[in-house]
Design a protein that fits this description.
Strand content: 25-35%
Low-confidence stretches: 2-21
Structural class: alpha+beta
Oligomer: single chain
Strand order of the largest sheet: 1-2
Shape: globular
Number of helices: 2
Length: 89
Amino acid sequence: MKLILVFGLLFLSPFAQARAPTRYLSDLTCAELKYVVRAHQRITLCARRFDCYRFVASEIFCPEREIAINAFVPTKDNPRCTALVCRHF
């Protein structure tokens, strides 16, 4: 039993620590943001550390009890880039 637990901890440890790099809106141009959303259908990006948006290609990608609205978000080249974001209704 201990062997299984130790093996599990050793095996999962690198994966538990691995994180996807954080992408900020200020790293993207408006065109790049729209391309990324179209390619991934839904993606969460942050304007600042705790100011994050869930971008979607269509309202069908919003979680339950949320709707897609056009929002102005700041990007590298445009402080008012329009994109669909999910919001609680």
